[in-house]
Write a structure and sequence with these properties.
single chain, alpha+beta, Pdz3 Domain, Acetylcholine Binding Protein, Chain: A, eight-stranded mixed β-sheet, four-stranded antiparallel β-sheet, 11 helices, 20 strands
């Protein structure tokens, strides 16, 4: 009997241990009391930074290089420029400037005062730079403003103009304030400064708005990239919670080699200027009546991605040629710009079975570069011009020696054709003609003129020698002048 009781007791202990083991594992979630507390006490929800009730107008940003800070972007009359208008689509982002809000002159308001004015609720009158007045009634909406805390270009490995791909190494940090997580830690007295890795179980347990952000990459090579898209476990964590200065934020690291599709314009090649684009997308639409928190219907939502000063400081350093080490290119005077942009698109909702219009705020990092044209000038254009000169100087050979003229001009033409095969890989294969294409085509035409003249003169030399000499003199002088004029027109017209 005692043995039976002992057996039952052992079974009870075993069941109890099995039952309590998940709790024990959860107590050691990510080996951190902070993460464990969030895991056990956080209510699963989609967190927004702010719940606002205003006109939905936000002002654009720019970098004040002299004072090393981000300020509100203004036009030449010191009026603030709109970054985005949620409820009035007639106000064009990045272009429309606001002159007055309720008859208050905005050119005389500093940045702090302007930000306070965006919180006005009720009916508000906005006068834009064209003089037109809009009245907007405030409405509730939710706002998320993700931060690009750091973006550092380590190197540009390749600018493939034939395939339209930019390959560069970068190091980026994205952050998002989480007031809901801070509330949990405050209640548990666990506001301990530090970085805490978000382990896999906790990652899938909660909602993380910051994970929607993505780099608009042509391809993602896990062998040379570290980020959220990596399937294998990485040595260094890429998604963490940071507790610092009484703030709780999610921190996401993306680094390695990125491949970005580019759209190049080669009309002015080889004296062309290009803009390299690195686009970071929020992948969240802006809606007047919808948001991602299902408990709040008929409330709008707006999502931004905003750079912090560290991004500008690091990009300014990359302007130094000793750091960027670009050979075929150089960064132009326009330098590197960071712009807020809007992508408008129609998307089909498979659940509601309808097409929805979507605005999405994206962040564009633009690197303005100029081609170092010396290679093309001295190794392509100058030799082509010298070959043409040889062909053209045939016109200085006496007209009666038409055989020598014809042989020399044909040899020069064949040399030009052969040389064209030498540099053809240096020129992009396009559906339109670039400046250097027009130059080479023009050189072909003028290289053929001495050939045609030599053949024509061979037929008329015996009939009217004087007439032939006059035509030859006229063409050799004014033909050369015409060639130079056309060449200048090719390279100096817009």
């Amino acid at each position: 009997m005692n043995n039976k009781k002992f057996t039952k007791f052992i079974r009870f202990l075993f069941i109890l241990l099995v039952f309590l083991s998940p709790l024990k594992l959860s107590a050691k979630m990510c080996e951190s009391d902070v993460i464990n507390s969030l895991f056990l006490n956080d209510v699963r929800n989609f967190e927004y930074n702010e719940i606002r009730d205003d006109s939905g107008i936000h002002f654009d940003f720019m970098w004040d290089k002299n004072n090393q800070k981000i300020i509100i972007k203004r036009n030449q009359n010191n009026y603030p420029i709109i970054r985005y208008s949620l409820f009035n689509k007639d106000l064009v982002p990045g272009i429309t400037a606001i002159k007055k809000i309720d008859n208050l002159d905005l050119s005389k308001q500093d940045d702090k005062q302007l930000k306070k004015l965006t919180y006005l609720n009720g009916k508000t009158d906005f006068e834009i730079d064209s003089g037109k007045v809009f009245s907007i009634n405030s409405r509730p909406y939710k706002l998320n403003d993700f931060k690009l805390s750091n973006f550092k270009i380590l190197s540009i490995q390749n600018i493939d103009t034939t395939k339209g791909i930019l390959e560069l190494s970068f190091d980026a940090i994205l952050t998002n304030e989480r007031k809901d997580l801070k509330k949990v830690l405050d209640n548990q007295n666990l506001m301990i400064n530090g970085l805490y890795e978000i382990c896999e179980n906790f990652y899938y347990r909660n909602d993380w708005p910051l994970t929607s952000v993505s780099f608009d990459e042509f391809r993602y090579d896990v062998d040379v990239r570290e980020g959220l898209k990596n399937k294998a476990v990485l040595k260094n964590p890429v998604f963490e919670i940071t507790v610092d200065k009484n703030l709780v934020r999610t921190l996401r690291t993306e680094k390695g080699v990125g491949f970005f599709r580019q759209s190049f314009d080669f009309q002015k090649f080889p004296f062309d200027k290009q803009t390299l684009l690195i686009r970071i997308k929020t992948n969240v639409g802006n809606y007047i009546n919808n948001n991602l928190d299902s408990s709040n219907d008929n409330i709008g939502s707006l999502t931004f991605l905003t750079p912090e000063p560290g991004v500008y400081l690091n990009l300014e350093k990359f302007l130094d040629p000793s750091i960027n080490k670009l050979k075929a290119w150089k960064i132009s005077k326009d330098g590197i710009k960071i712009k807020n942009n809007i992508i408008s698109d129609n998307s089909y909702d498979i659940f509601d079975e309808k097409i929805n219009f979507k605005d999405e705020n994206v962040l564009d990092i633009e690197i303005n570069i100029e081609r170092n044209y010396q290679h093309y000038l001295f190794k392509i254009m100058l030799p082509v011009f010298l070959i043409l000169c040889v062909a053209w100087y045939v016109l200085w050979i006496p007209t009666e020696k038409y055989e020598a003229r014809l042989n020399t001009s044909i040899i020069a033409l064949l040399a030009l054709i052969a040389y064209n095969f030498v540099f053809q890989d240096d020129i992009p294969k396009l559906e339109y003609l670039t400046d250097i294409d027009w130059f080479i085509l023009l050189s072909y035409i003028f290289c053929c003129i001495p050939v045609f003249l030599s053949i024509a003169f061979s037929k008329f030399i015996s009939k009217n020698q004087k007439k032939v000499m006059q035509i030859n003199k006229f063409i050799k002088i004014w033909g050369g002048v015409l060639y130079l004029i056309l060449t200048l027109q090719i390279f100096y017209t817009n």
